Amino acid sequence: MTSLHFAEMEKKERKIMVAVDESQESMHALSWCITNLISETNKLVLLYVRPPSAFYSLDAAGYNFSSDVVDAMEKYSMHLANSVMERAEAVCRDLNATNINMERVVGVGHAKNVICSAVKKLEADTLVMGTHGYGFFKRALLGSVSDHCAKHAKCPVVIVKQP
Amino acid sequence: MTSLHFAEMEKKERKIMVAVDESQESMHALSWCITNLISETNKLVLLYVRPPSAFYSLDAAGYNFSSDVVDAMEKYSMHLANSVMERAEAVCRDLNATNINMERVVGVGHAKNVICSAVKKLEADTLVMGTHGYGFFKRALLGSVSDHCAKHAKCPVVIVKQP
C-alpha cells in the first residue's frame, strides 16, 4: 500500500457492469474486468439481455406463433440466460474471484437499448463489454452493440477485444 | 487484502496508455484512469499527438509557407505538447498520484493512426481516452478518434465521457 494510496483514498463502492452473452468475447471481457478493475470496494453486475419475445412474429405461413411455440421459446431463452450466467460465474471461480460482491441482472429487449438503460437505471460507474469481430457487411447490417454503447451509455465504457 | 487476492495474483506490470490533448475530456479520462486502473504494478504512458507538420500546406495565396512560418508553427506545436503534459502531471499531483511510474510519449501525425500505432509499438495493455461530445455534423465530418481507436487498437479501450 505505498503508491496505491492515492487511488485507494479515492475509491468508493463502485458498480462495474459487465454485459455477458453466449460469446467467448464477452467471457474474455469479464476476465479482463476481474483482473484489472474489480476490487473489494466494487460491486460486479452481470447483465444478460434476452431478445424481445416473439408475440408479434409470424411463422413461414404468415400466422402468429401458437402459444405453445411462444412458451417453448420463452423457456429456451430463460434457459440460455441461466446457462450464460453460470458460465460467467465459472469464469469468476477460475480466477479465484469467489468472494466477489456480485449481482445478476437479466433484461429483455434489444441489447444496445437495454444495456444503456440498465447503466442509467442501476447507476453503473463503468460498463465493460466484449466486441464481436464482425466483418464489414455484418457490422453494416447489424450495427455494433459496443459502438452504440460506447457513444450512448452514461458512464465510461471499456471495449475488450479478443486477443 | 481479502477479496482482492485473486486480482493481485493475476496482476503483472501492465502498461496503461492515456491519450491526452488540450481538451478537458482527456484530463477527465486521465483522472478516471488514476482512480480506477492505475496501481503500483502498472506503468502510466501519457501519449500526446502533435498534428502532422505543415511542409506541404499552402497559404491563402497558394504558396508554400516560408521556413520561418513553419519553424514558428513547429515551435508552437512543441510548446503545446509540453503544456498538455504539464497539465496532465498536475492532474496526477491533484490526485496525490506523485510516485506513479510514468512515461511521456509525443507522436506526430493524425491522432487516430498515431494512437493505434503507439499501442502496438509500445505494447500497451489498455488504452484510455476521452471523447469529445461532437454533434452529428462535426462527427460525420471529422470522424471520431475514439470510435476509430475502439475498433482498431490492439488492446482493450476505455472510452471516458465527461459527466
Please characterize this protein's 3D structure:
The structure is a homodimer of 163-residue chains. Chain A is of the alpha/beta class. Chain A has one domain (12-160): Rossmann fold (3-Layer(aba) Sandwich), CATH 3.40.50. In chain A, 45% of the residues lie in helices and 20% in strands. The first copy, chain A, is built from 6 helices and 5 strands. Chain A has helices at 5-10, 24-36, 67-94, 111-121, 136-142, 145-152; strands at 14-20, 42-50, 102-108, 126-130, 157-160. A 5-stranded parallel sheet of chain A has the order 3-2-1-4-5, sandwiched between helices. In chain A, helix 2 (24-36) packs parallel to helix 3 and helix 4 (111-121) runs parallel beside helix 6 (145-152). Chain A is globular, with a radius of gyration of 18 Å. Chain A starts with a helix and ends with a strand. Chain A binds chain B through residues 2-7, 9-11, 14, 29, 32, 34-40, 95-101, 126, 131, 146-147, 150-151, 154-161, and chain B through 2-7, 9-11, 14, 29, 32, 34-40, 95-101, 126, 131, 146-147, 150-151, 154-161.
The count of domains of chain A is 1
- Text of the CATH class of chain A: Alpha Beta
The most extensive contact between chains is: A-B, 40 and 40 residues
Assign the CATH architecture of chain A. 3-Layer(aba) Sandwich
Could you give the count of β-strands of chain A? 5
- The residue fraction in helices of chain A comes out at 40-55%
**The CATH H-level homologous superfamily of chain A:** HUPs
Mean pLDDT of chain A: 83
Q: What is the N-to-C succession of helices and strands of chain A?
A: HEHEHEHEHHE
The strand line-up of the biggest sheet of chain A is 3-2-1-4-5
Uncertain segments of chain A: 1-11
How would you describe the shape of chain A?
Answer: globular
Major beta-sheet overview of chain A: 5 strands, parallel
Protein name (chains A, B): UspA domain-containing protein
Pfam family, one (chains A, B): Usp
Organism (chains A, B): Glycine max
